[in-house]
Known about the structure:
Two copies of one chain form a homodimer. Chain A is an alpha+beta fold.
Amino acid sequence: MKNNCVEGRSEFNKLNEFSDYLKIIADINRLKILCLLKKGERCVCNINEPLGLRQNLTSHHLKALRDAGLVLTRRDGKWVHYRINTEKLNYLNELYNEIISRQ
Amino acid sequence: MKNNCVEGRSEFNKLNEFSDYLKIIADINRLKILCLLKKGERCVCNINEPLGLRQNLTSHHLKALRDAGLVLTRRDGKWVHYRINTEKLNYLNELYNEIISRQ
DNA sequence: GTGAAATATCAAGCAATATTGATATGATAT
DNA sequence: ATATCATATCAATATTGCTTGATATTTCAC
């Protein structure tokens, strides 16, 4: 396996996985949501209200974050609480270092 | 100035700057270009050829990277050599840590 | 100068994605 | 069971940005 970005199946997959991750967090609203969640678990209405986003738009972005595995959910009666998926984020941070930061 | 992601002019600007950066590097072709350039300076034809990209498309993405300040150029006769702007990238890596990685 | 090579620019087409408005689902309280 | 609150889904529109083809610019060799 070549250790560069052009050849090698494994590197190719990593780059695409990383690209998908970046596309998810590049959106300014999703970035704001992630920042809120970094402070702790929150229900949807405690996300859209401070950010000034419509409920359905917030729900839509949360779905994108959830589909990407970046957040986890927990239902509590009428409320659904969202939180950062720390393990996944740690893995993707490592990918960031590997692809962008190092050297 | 509040130290969170919702309020505070400075935090707002940082998030937008960070979002713009992520949008630039999220594109798979620009990501591949950055990976090539991490190995050292390259002229345009030594970028599009290994990546299998058309010349004008490569040029277009290089312009995006240059406009974002992520790469620097040096003309050498008919050739234009591109290289990573290390200072800028270091700054943005720090921003990544600040906004995403830490805690 | 003329021609050729390397790179850049531009406009048009197209695809992906964000946003909106309306509506549906799921849970609780009465 | 009905009403209400919290959240999710869907279809339509709007927007953004990638890609392409054609053409322009810059530099060098002759």
